[in-house]
Amino acid sequence: MSTANLTRAETADRARVVSDVRYDVALDLTEARTRAEFGTVTTVSFAATASSTWMDFLGAGVDRVIVNDHEQEVQYDGARVLLRDLGSHNTVRIHARGWYSRTGEGLHRFVDPADGETYLYTQYEPADARRVFVNFEQPDLKGPFVFRVSAPDEWTVLSNERVEETTTDDAGSSTRVFAATQPISTYITAVVAGPYHRATSEYRRGDLTIELGAWCRASLGEHLDHDDIFDVTRAGLDFFHDAFEFPYPFGKYDQVFVPEYNLGAMENPGCVTFTESYVFRSAATRAQYARRANTILHEMAHMWFGDLVTMQWWDDLWLKESLADYLGAYASVAATRFTDAWVSFALRRKAWAYSQDQLPTTHPVVADIVDLEAAKLNFDGITYAKGASVIKQLGAFVGDEAFFEGARAYFRARAFGTATLRDLLDALAAPAGRSLDDWSAAWLETTGVSTVLYDRTRGVLTQTDPRPQRLDIACLSPDENGHLVDAEPISVHITDAETPLALPDAAVILPNDGDLTYAKVRLDARSMESTMQSLDRIPDDLRRALVWSSWWNATRDAELPAQTYVDLAVRFAPTESHPAVLGSILADTAVAVEHYAADRDGVRQRWTATTAEQLAGAPAGSDAQLEWFRAFSAAASHDPSHAGRVRALLSGEDSVDGLELDAEQRWGLWFALSATGHTDEAELATVLESDRTGAGEVQYAAAVAAQPVASVKEATWAALTGSDALSNERVGALIRGFTAGPSRTLIERFDEQYYALLETFWRERSIEIARRLVIGLFPSAAHSEDADRWLSGHPDVPAALRRCVIEQRDHLARALAARSLSAQA
């Protein structure tokens, strides 16, 4: 195993040796426009109880190691720097050289094709701060940081704290010295540099004033709707101050939208980074604004859960991610205009959790993370969405006030320190008035998702994998207007596999009303028939979402034929009034068509025709119109029969009232034409000239790779597998294009090469790029025997690589089972 893959055991040993850590980090970014390397000098003071230890660094080289004013021979193996002759108190200075990144890990560099400007930002979680400066790369060795950043004088430079001092030299560069941070972990330190566009505001609460900043690339400045971002930010700060009764502890609050970002966002205190896809350069729906608000609030929750109190090791990643995921939705409902956030949560986040929890690689929310590779892969649907779902169940179980009172005690007791599962459970148990050990054992420390069904014949509520839980049941019957409503949900606490319940003989019995618990819902036969006939008569958005969730889980589990789900979408999606529900239906239907239907061509044609019809008839300028446009563009990339309509929309010969095509929408249509063989590279190059932006270049790359031409597929495969020079975003675009289109006939010949290259991907690429290649290029329409053969023949490959292949093989097996059911229907 490479020494870069730190283990839990060895970092625990180091934590017993090292304490009282303080950092001073100097970065020389003055030649960022022209050089591949940058200078980095770490000065760190710490106490030690051993004469030697190591620090972590992944970079171009280590030039000097000075321990307590004595120069030592550099002993560096590419990942670890050995420190010798330590005393009880030490000052170490290490001079090193780092590489600018193109993978979104470490210090990422992006050159904007719109204006040629260079932009830098850092992204570290879980352990990539060591790509930028030498450090103790583990979350429990927290300490204050001072950053000194030299960069071109005209650039903005941001970090976790405010600039305290600036000095300028004669060469046109400035060194910005930032105030010392509070004690924080290495993975949430941050540096951002470049000619960023800015907007400023402030938040006031009593004597507290917080400077607010919103930043993006200069070429996107006109699209930065900073007023909305600041409105959500202020609402969130009000909410969390009231909820936690612990003032925001990190001074300023900058939010930076950065290019080629691997994540949705990262909670660096005082300098939160977001994907710039949240700067809407194209028309956006209310659901997109809601997702952005949710992400802003998710990251803000981390200022307390994660930054103020940090998990001791990655086993307890849930201590920040599950809590933040839950609180992002909770605060959206409580503090913003997006009071329907639980609707989207039920459909999108829960679906992610249910899918992940049924994989053979599922794990408890409180996971067993033995090393950093395992930690990297556990940023998944269990840690985020299942964890958030069970926290929501905990709130229903003990009450919101008990939950927040426990959180306040937790922050007071653990501020600026670290914590484990035990620490949070103890803090919550007192206000809850009960031990939460049994609850934790059932929900946080086990795997699997229960399925809940009401058996009308026997009058019994059943649950597989029994767990103690509280849930509500809605009994819906027609009112005088024919709407399916109930008087009052029935609240029950269940523990056993079967719970006798005498429920009214309603048209629809809907377990888990309000989506309080984490369980898949199966509808009984009468409820299924009633909803299939009258779903549009259920006025409550969340209840319709829960019915769609039930149908989708049954489709994924090969209990409901894929064409039946498509039929339901064709019938009810056109009348769906909630944009988040509509968006989820359209996305799931596309998966049902392309992966789960046996008669894919027939189902595909029906679905594409539906999207075209609804696009033409949707209200002008509505969210529904945008959603149907996107669905049509996606469907048309698999269905060549609509190429004429696509080209007519692009040329203006055909138009849709209220839809003015912007650059992003036009690229969606060009991609559809390319994937079905109705354009070529020369025409696409002409399109690129009208959108010479970062987004335009990525869309162009995807569209070119989508052409159903053997030589194009060969060149794309060679680019993906033969070079590590591509950026993270370019890799994603090429994979999207390579795998696009109605058929994979042209790429089947690469399946054998895929399995031969898996270990090379993992060994020679960063884990971010390796994951993209392993997952994105997996032969998802082939036979599962190929994956089985590789897995049985490679038992000793890294566990994280095996996990990726196992999960893709399971997705394929699920698709094959769904197709088999579809063929029999």
Structure report:
With about 800 residues, the chain is of the alpha+beta class. Helices cover about 45% and strands about 20% of the residues. It has 26 helices and 29 strands. The chain has an eight-stranded mixed β-sheet. Strand 8 (about 105-110) and strand 9 form a beta hairpin. Helix 8 packs across helix 9 and helix 23 packs antiparallel against helix 24 (about 765-775). It is globular, with a radius of gyration of 27 Å. The mean pLDDT is about 95.
* Poorly predicted runs: none
Main sheet properties: 8 strands, mixed
Distance between the termini: 50 Å
Oligomer kind: single chain
Report the strand count: 29
The helix content, as a percent range, equals 40-55%
Based on secondary structure, the structural category is: alpha+beta
- On the 0 to 100 scale, the average pLDDT is 96
What strand order characterises the main sheet? 5-4-7-2-1-10-13-12
Instruction: Specify the overall morphology.
Output: globular
Helical run tally = 26
Strand content: 15-25%
Q: Calculate Rg over CA atoms.
A: 27 Å
Please describe the structure with a list of short key phrases separated by commas or semicolons:
825 residues; alpha+beta; 8-stranded mixed sheet; 5-stranded mixed sheet; 20% strand; globular
Q: What's the topology here?
A:
Blueprint: H1 8-17, E1 18-28, E2 37-48, E3 53-56, E4 61-67, E5 70-72, E6 80-83, E7 89-99, E8 106-111, E9 118-123, E10 145-152, E11 156-159, E12 163-168, E13 173-178, E14 191-194, E15 197-205, E16 208-216, H2 226-244, E17 253-258, E18 265-266, E19 271-275, H3 286-302, E20 310-311, H4 318-335, H5 341-357, H6 372-377, H7 382-398, H8 400-414, E21 418-419, H9 421-432, H10 437-443, E22 450-455, E23 460-463, E24 469-478, E25 484-485, E26 490-494, E27 498-500, E28 508-513, E29 519-522, H11 525-534, H12 541-556, H13 562-572, H14 579-596, H15 600-617, H16 623-636, H17 643-651, H18 663-675, H19 681-689, H20 694-705, H21 710-722, H22 728-738, H23 751-764, H24 767-776, H25 784-793, H26 799-824
Parallel strand pairs: 1-10, 16-17, 17-19, 20-21, 22-29
Antiparallel strand pairs: 1-2, 2-7, 3-6, 4-5, 4-7, 8-9, 9-14, 10-13, 11-14, 12-13, 15-16, 18-19, 22-23, 23-27, 24-25, 24-26, 24-28
Helix pairs in contact: 2-3, 2-4, 3-4, 4-7, 5-7, 5-12, 7-8, 8-9, 12-14, 13-14, 14-15, 14-16, 15-16, 16-18, 17-18, 18-20, 19-20, 20-22, 21-22, 22-24, 23-24, 25-26
